[in-house]
Amino acid sequence: MQGTAHDESDLDGIVVSESFRDVLQHERFPLVRKRIRTEYSIDYLCYTPEEYERMKTRSSVLESALSGPHQAVFGTV
Q: Which domain of life, per UniProt (predicted)?
């Protein structure tokens, strides 16, 4: 979904890493939050490369993020 940002808006960040291979899905978000410190409210969607390839056409959140006008690509985490 895309809309207008307001004071309580958050960002969705997609993190794809081989490091998640042996980490349970619910344990990934806290790991990323510890490594990426920011003052912004960010929800991280954390995938292995294979999960990402499988999910990018099945998840409406991923589809929206990948087709939206605001994208950034960073290096490794």
A: Archaea
What is residue 37's three-state secondary structure? coil
Residue identified by tokens 């939050």 is 33
33 and 63 in contact (C-beta within 8 Å)? Answer: no
Report the percentage of the chain scoring pLDDT > 90.
36
- 3-state SS class at 65: helix
CA end-to-end span of the chain: 26
Alpha helix stretches (DSSP H) within 1-77: 25-35, 49-55, 60-67
Task: Show the tokens assigned to 59.
Answer: 């998840």
Q: How far is CA 66 from CA 4, 28, 29, 31, 34, in A?
A: 17, 21, 20, 23, 25
What is this structure's pTM? Answer: 0.73
